[in-house]
Amino acid sequence: MPKPITPPAVDRVYTLNLGPQHPSTHGVLRVLLDLDGEFIVKADPVLGYGHRGHEKMGENRTYKQFMPNTSRMDYLSGLLYNHGFALAVEKFAGIEVPLRAKYIRTICAELNRISSHLLWFGTYVMDLGGFTPFLYAFDDRENILDILDRVSGSRLTYSYCRFGGVCRDVDDTFLEMTRAFIGRLRSRFPDYHNLVTKNIIFIHRTRNVGVIHPEQARQFGVTGPNLRACGIPFDMRKVEPYEIYDQFDFEIPVGTNGDALDRYNVRLEEMEQSCRIIEQALDRMPKGGPYLNKSVSFRLAPPKGELYFAFESARGLTAYYLVSDGSPYPYRCHIRVPSFSNLHVLTDVFCGTMVADAISILGSIDVVIPEIDR
Amino acid sequence: MGSLVTSEWFRLVLGLVIVLAFSQLNALFLVWLERKVAGHIQLRIGPKEVGPFGLLQTIVDGLKLVGKELITPRSADSRLFPIAPVLVFMPVLVGFLVLPFAPNLIIRDMNVGVLLIFAFSAFTVLAILAGGWASNNKYALLGAIRSVAQNVAYEIPLLLAVLSVVLMVNSFQFSEIVKGQERVWFFLIQPVAALIYLICATAETNRAPFDIPEAESELVAGFHTEFSGMRFGLFFLAEYTNMFIVSAVATSLFFGGWHGPFGLDLGVPGIVWFLAKTYVLIFVIMWVRWTFPRLRFDQLMNLSWKFMIPLSLANLVVTAIVLKLV
Amino acid sequence: MMKRDLILQKLRKLLPEGAVSEDEGYESGVAFSARVPVARIVEIASACDHAGAYLESMTGLDFEDTAEIVYHFHTYEPKSRFSLRVLFPHEEKIPTLSGIFSSAVWLEREVREFFGYVFADHPDPRNLLLPEDADFHPLRKTFGKIAAYRKREEIYA
Amino acid sequence: MGYWKEIVEGGWSLVEGMRVTVRRLCRPVVTVQYPRKQLNLSPAYRGHIEFKRFPDTGTHKCIACGACQRACPSHVIKVQGVKAHLNSAKTATHYFIDFSRCSLCGLCVETCPTKTLQYSREYELEGESRLDSIVDLMARLEQRNS
């Protein structure tokens, strides 16, 4: 637990309005910080600037029509959300998926995960004041976007997955590009380490900053790399393997202290693990065969009942909770988003830290605000 | 007539005019250079549209700033607020008066030149504090407070590092110091002092990784958050002019001023040597900025009080003892 | 023994016969789900807390005849998600779990603003995502355009 | 001794970082100077929809069935058609989309029974008002024909 600070006299505390148009609150987060000098006494996030009502929209749309919505919640890992929704509905309605489609989806999802982590890497270092790694990371991320653009036609909100497959087959160029990208990314890691990971200033800005204890993480429901940085190897891809993740050989990186440096290391290692998954998938992918189960009707109606489907997005455990009344419209479509809990824990972690640390912690936790607002 | 041209007053007025023109143009050039260096470090081009290699880009930007409305926040201090940008630029100009560009190109070769330059550079912090305070904005105030603490902390090791050079030549006069480096540049004899000087100078000019007074990811823009138009422009130009001055001082104190290396002038005029070395130092400062993340405020203080000050003190003592013994 | 099974045993002991239904194949994404009376939700949830589960998700459901809140818990172990379900009339106040799980504070704020289900003694009953002056509850089936408003037994046979 | 070790190791790490950036300084830039140079569009690029022209008929094959209109999650498609006479097939007379609200999901293209819709390859779109984003597919097809 963070060390308790003596509450200062009331007249010493002033309120600083951080956001929603602050350079480093990533989107539209607004945090009301009660400060004593440079120290934070209380943090109160104000949310909802990006609320679009996706859950209500889900009730008014057929399952197929809801697919484009899913990539607009967490716009940095839109394909993972597409993938999760496709998996959820496939499980719910009992739709067969061709093997080739499973591989394509896995490769694209992992590419999307890497791109999300790369963007996080860049913005995090930029929050700490280092501007250059941001553009190096974007340079690499552009490569992923080119690859995904080639198969899906979009660079951000993909809507690539369909129930029973994907909307477009991949070609050999895609496979070559992906292989080339993995080699390229691996050759860039040493530079990243020299430029950022080993940098003494970076280490001082992150070590023992924003420590989340496992108990605290459990209390607040923290998931994803933030939880793994506390030493709990909880990853949906291993714990409840979905799609074909049980066939791949990969590890779940964990940290020890749960501080910002551990979160950083976990994410960087996760990129490497994603590379491993992609490599294995590329090797084993069936050469031909269907990429889409075309028998899925537009007004597809799962049987009455409910389904809770959890998967691992780039930011943590994400879940679709669907209730069907047997009609083509879901009766309830709830989305459990990881950033919601991950941001909530900050109200606790922020107390007693400096403003500069708050920025570092906020960056290290990797929240996407529209995902929380839904 | 002849007496007018050679008179001190004429010299001073002419010098001031040249300084004004040079400092402005130089600052505009440095802004362009910074953007180019940053661009190429980040694998992009930087300005390229206006003029050859985009050289006129900053002039156009400056014109745009001049044309912008000067906004004074309603709750700002209406008298202090407009003064602050002027205050910040004024001391920077004074620095040019004593810089030894070449053997005969010193506007006023005072015997306390070194002292004068540091006295006036300490003045900028007052202007920053005025600007931050007058804005009546929490971000600006935080930036101003940080700036004061930082400048106070870094002035000490800075001056201690300079003192060890002064001890070696027994003079505060720039021309004397430069003359003392005809054979060997002082940074070879005083590497620790040179390093400390460069680090502290970076901090003095609020450059990354010590740019916490204006840390854009924390304080939006720090002390100049509320300034718009040319008021912001003055802060901006002052930062770059300041950078030139600290680099020029470093050149004359540690890197031989107008001398070539090891007394080899190679027929190149002194001013070329001087400016070349200054711009190389400026490039290094820019290079550092685009490489490192920013320090936290308390770490910045730690660095000064725990590392810089003891080191510079030790360096000064060792210098003094060695000089006494030799 | 897995925490999930420990909790299952505990719940069987605490709750009446037939309240806990197991899902062997993990078909609906939960290992078992328990119907909990409103009055006992705090007691049951703190039992889950002691056993080391975390509150993963919490959401409301709106039926014509009843309101429902579904709590999903997980224990970080393979296939160990389980749910607690509370049924209550729309106007009734529900006890808050914020004293047990910190995460419940925001989750309950979200449920309150979107469904209008009121939590008794909630420490921070402001709106979370909606504007602070919003007096409507968007996810209630009485709000806006909807496909159907059903009774609970029409969906859960 | 941690004091000295930190100075040396920390200092070295800074030098390493500067080596990375200066090496990049000498490398060619990776950005594309956009209006002067343009990249190739992805083969799957999704612009707004437009009619395909079939070589056998020289025109589109839209039968105004309204499948795309129903499939569209954002309700941006309006299609109308007429029957030339009682027993003939319907053909579209009007087809509009409001591109400003389109989410480019591609459901219309996928549901089209005659496969007459395709994605356009335009990306430099601009307009002075929201109304400019309404695309008239029939007019576009004629424009391309002429």
Descriptive account of the structure:
- The complex is a heterotetramer of chains A (374), B (326), C (157) and D (146).
- By secondary structure, chain B is mostly helical.
- Helices cover 68% and strands 0% of the residues of chain B.
- Chain B is globular.
- Chain C has one domain: 2-Layer Sandwich (Beta Polymerase, domain 2), CATH 3.30.460.80.
- Chain C is built from 4 helices and 7 strands; from the N terminus they run H-E-E-H-E-E-E-E-H-E-H.
- In chain C, strand 6, helix 3 and strand 7 form a beta-alpha-beta unit.
- The mean pLDDT of chain C is 85.
- Chains A and C meet through helix 1, helix 8, strand 6, strand 7 and strand 8 of A and strand 3, strand 4 and helix 3 of C.
Quick rundown:
The complex is a heterotetramer of chains A (374), B (326), C (157) and D (146). Chain A has helices at residues 54-59, 63-70, 78-93, 99-127, 132-152, 172-197, 200-206, 214-220, 225-228, 236-239, 260-284, 338-344, 346-349, 355-365, 369-373, and strands at 14-18, 30-36, 39-46, 161-162, 165-166, 305-313, 316-324, 330-336.
What is the overall pLDDT average of chain C? 85
- Strand count of chain C: 7
CATH class of the domain at 49-145 in chain D: Alpha Beta
The rounded Rg of chain D comes to: 27 Å
Query: For the CA atoms, what is the radius of gyration of chain C?
Result: 16 Å
Major sheet description of chain D: 3 strands, antiparallel
How far apart the termini of chain D lie comes to 83 Å
**Helix coverage percent of residues of chain C?**
10-25%
Overall geometry of chain C: globular
Write down the overall geometry of chain D: elongated
Q: Could you tell me which chain pair has the largest interface and how many residues each side has?
A: A-C, 45 and 46 residues
Domain tally of chain C: 1
Supply the key terms.
heterotetramer, C: 157 residues, alpha/beta, Beta Polymerase, domain 2, 5-stranded mixed beta sheet, two-stranded parallel sheet, 4 helices, 7 strands, globular, D: 146 residues, alpha+beta, Alpha-Beta Plaits, 3-stranded antiparallel beta sheet, two-stranded antiparallel ribbon, 5 strands, elongated
